[in-house]
Amino acid sequence: MKTVAIIQARMGSSRLPGKVLREITNGQSVLAYMVARMKKAQKLGQICVATSEEVADQAIVEACKALEIPVFCGSETDVLDRFYKAAKTLEATTLVRLTADCPAIDPDLIDQAVSNFETGAYDYYSNALLRTYPDGLDVEVFSFKALEEAHEKVTSQRFREHVTPYLRTGFFPREMTGDFRVGHLKHKSDFSHLRWTLDTEEDLCFLQRFLPLLPEDFSWEDGLSCLMTNPDLLHYNRDIKSRTSALADLETGQDVERSNRSNLPRRYEQSNSLFERVEKIIPLASQTFSKSYQQVSKGAGPLFLDSGKGARVFDIDGNSYIDYVMGLLPNVLGYGDPDIDAAIHRQLEKGITFSLPSDLEFILAEKLVELIPSAEQVRFGKNGSDATSAAIRLARAYTGRDKVVACGYHGWHDWYIGTTTRNLGVPASVQELSLRLDFGDFEKARDLFTSEGDQIAAIILEPCGAVQPPEGYLQHLRDLCDHSGTVLIFDEIITGFRIDVRGAQHVYNVTPDLSCFGKAMANGMPISAVVGQKRVMRLMEDIFFSGTFGGETLSLAAACATIDKLTKYDVPSQISACGKLLKEKLNALFRQYGFQDNLSVYAEDWWPLLKAQGLETEDVLFKTLLRQELNANGILLNASFNLSWAHTAPEVTDETISRFEKALQTLKAAVDSKKPDTFLRGELIQPTFQVRKSS
Asked: How far is Cα 392 from Cα 631, in angstroms, rounded to an integer?
């Protein structure tokens, strides 16, 4: 009797290409780690790898040579033939079939399956049909004689793409199988809901964090104990759905439902119904103007979202969208990032809001001081308006002056919003203390400081965004502030951690006195920061900037994890590359459909903006029709592409272009018609106000 374990492995995985040679722990590849685990099994006489003859799989051949295990190359599509010839070459009498999806395989489980196979005189024995073990511990044991019969008799191409379907007697009502004695390895408790398999990037993240926590010769029960003490690990791949079996329709005797929700017509009954109730008790039916129904063609678009994952969201009617709003920019990694969710879960076990400061406040503050040029000291808030208003109060305290100059958007508090058209409720005396400055206007800035420089406590501006600062402009403001004793404040609520993890001040090499950060700092958790020079920040001990939730620990933990991940993977550069590609492809599409004078994606690569202006159609109607059709084709977009790391996946860009094209086809029909308003299925959108110079 010779028992041989054959691992099926190839580089061409559709969901995780090259996974078999990806590093999994301690510098080991998935294949090397799995082979090391299998060598601990007592019932195996030999271990072999069966791969294909494709050029890409030569990398597996070389890896097997380094591991000093035999490798057999065969047909890529006739997997049954490949496996059979490998078994015959090795003169095996009993086969153990494993796949490279199972690096956490338990050698004791292999031995148990082989022993039960031998003592029970089975032809086929496995734990893969009636599942009770975690997904990723799959073991199949069968005789060479049974394999040989399958190789001789199976003619179905679908069955030959696999190894063991013919051996699973009676398991496929619509296909002929052999007459074999089949046995099942089952545990008394059902753990099949646990996912230890390797099929996606999320699975790899899970295993890379899970396996190092286990003893060297761990059993699968050790894995269960580890998850009980580290439940945060379950966040990494909990939302991954098991791949539908290629033979699922044969297993059930019914056709598998293959419809894609993203291709179904969208309906908004639940959104519209809920809105009627919400608007009665919540003014605007939202907490944020830019997230409200005013930004959607109400009646022909989603009004409430239910969930999100990666770059996609689902509304309460179950419709899916590629989301380019992303909560107005906080979700820099994407919805439900497993590392951030795990960090939140770990902290949740400890507590949320304490009676004294948490050490996380220092840990995060230290990270910011190390990264941000202007940061010598740090204080935390919960949103951007907290940070900008605290910075203004600090500047007034430091200079003893009252006037401030604003350039950009800086939040909802009186000192700023009084300078906009949304100034209802702001006292005139407060409005008089705030002045406006157009971004990039050298002359006006110089004139303003010449006439009122000795009265200006601070100038606050977004250092870049809709447009790049003209060459020398930021340094010009730095020089004006130095000359007049004015505090220079960079509002990096948007630019921070997106243009660069160190902020726009690093990119443009101009250091302000104070800076405000938020949004992307914690991937969706509410936190902001005022950072700056000690000479100014020390007055934080005297002004009143104090909040119960300033040291809330879930947001602090999320921020620490987010900054670490942004830095480790250089996420900002990947987002910029994605934005550049998106701009190129969409602008080419606009030209193709004759919209080059009406639609364009412009501005900086890290934050592309969409400019939309109608032909003979009025602008608001044109923009409403565009958003309506984008929604109808599964894209959520306002005026900017708020990119995340999740958007950098190639398939997201490809889907975006495809969906945009479908939207443009309807939009073109509308603008070419004599009555474009007849294409409108909902209400017109309502712009809030514009505060950023767009060109």
From this structure: 39
Phi first, then psi: give them for residue 641, nearest 5 degrees. -95, 95
User: If you search the block for the tokens 């939009």, which residue do you land on?
Assistant: 667
Mean pLDDT, residues 391-414: 96
% of the chain at pLDDT higher than 90: 84
Looking from the CA of 220 toward its CB, the CA atoms found within 13 Å total: 24
- Residue 581: in which H helix or E strand, if any? helix 571-592
**Cβ pair 49, 60 in contact under 8 A:** yes
Report the distance separating Cα 305 and Cα 323, nearest Å.
11
Confirm if 104 and 38 have CB atoms less than 8 A apart.
no
Dihedral sign, Cα of residue 442, residue 447, residue 448, residue 452: positive
* CA dihedral of residues 89, 91, 93, 94 (deg, nearest 10): -50
Q: Among 686, 604, 670, which residue's Cα sits nearest to residue 638?
A: 686
Cα-Cα-Cα-Cα dihedral sign, residues 208, 210, 212, 218: negative
What confidence category does residue 616 fall into, taking pLDDT thresholds of 50, 70 and 90?
A: low
Nearest to 163 by CA among 138, 196, 187: 138
Residue-wise pLDDT for 364-398, tens only, equals 999 999 999 999 999 999 999 999 999 999 999 99
Q: In whole angstroms, give the CA distance from residue 414 to residue 422.
A: 10
Q: Residues 380, 382, 388, 394: is their CA dihedral positive or negative?
A: negative
The more confident residue out of 600 and 248 is 600
Q: Please, where are the H alpha helices in 284-408?
A: 338-348, 359-371, 384-399
Per the CB < 8 A criterion, the answer to whether 397 and 389 are in contact is: no
Which residues on adjacent β-strands are paired with residue 599?
Answer: 612
Determine the Cα–Cα distance for residues 277 and 296; give it in Å rounded to an integer: 18
Buried/exposed code over 570-600 (b: 16+ C-beta within 10 A; e: otherwise): ebbeebbebbeebbebbbebbeeeebeebbb
* Beta strand segments in 128-174, E: 140-143
> Which DSSP category does 310 fall into?
B
pLDDT at res. 265 = 67
